Amino acid sequence: MLGVMSERPLLISSILVHAATYHHDTEIVSRTVEGAIHRYTYAEAERRSKRLARALLRLGIKPGDRVGTLAWKIASGISSCITASRV
Questions:
Q1: How far apart are CA 30 and CA 26, in angstroms?
Q2: How far is it, in rounded angstroms, from Cα 82 to Cα 65?
Q3: Does residue 76 belong to any structural domain of this protein?
Q4: Low-confidence winner among 12-16, 25-29, 54-58 (lowest mean pLDDT)
Q5: What is the mean pLDDT of the chain?
Q6: How many separate domains does the chain show?
Q7: Is pLDDT above 70 for 72?
Q8: Helix (H/G/I), strand (E/B), else coil: 73
Q9: Which domain holds residue 81?
């Protein structure tokens, strides 16, 4: 990729892979709708994202398909966005 600043495209999924590889124990902290604090690591987020992406593929979603999500800005909503970018 001559003439660009990065060796790979800046996809959400590749950013998560980088975070899981180099910052796997770093916590992602969010608050649930009910108010409780939810904590998980980048490594856990990547595992969950891969698992959800495989489920979407089994359901017939193909690369290039549009996937919509309706979720709050919480862990499940963020996971949905990352997962859709993996397919």
A1: 13
A2: 15
A3: yes
A4: 12-16
A5: 81
A6: 1
A7: no
A8: coil
A9: 12-86
Percent of the chain residues topping a pLDDT of 70: 76
The tokens describing 2, both together, are: 């001559």
**Domain-embedded: residue 52:** yes
Nearest to 87 by CA among 8, 59, 22, 9: 59
What's this model's pTM, rounded to 2 decimal places?
0.71
Q: Which residue has 């180099």 as its token pair? A: 22
SS (H, E, C) 14-69: HHHHHHHHHCCCCEEEEECCCCCEEEEEHHHHHHHHHHHHHHHHHCCCCCCCCCCC
Give SS3 for 78.
helix
55 with 64: CB under 8 angstroms? no
* 40 strand-pairing partners: 28
Interatomic CA distance for residues 62 and 67, integer angstroms? 10
Q: Which residues contact 32 (CB under 8 A, 6 or more apart)?
A: 38, 74, 75
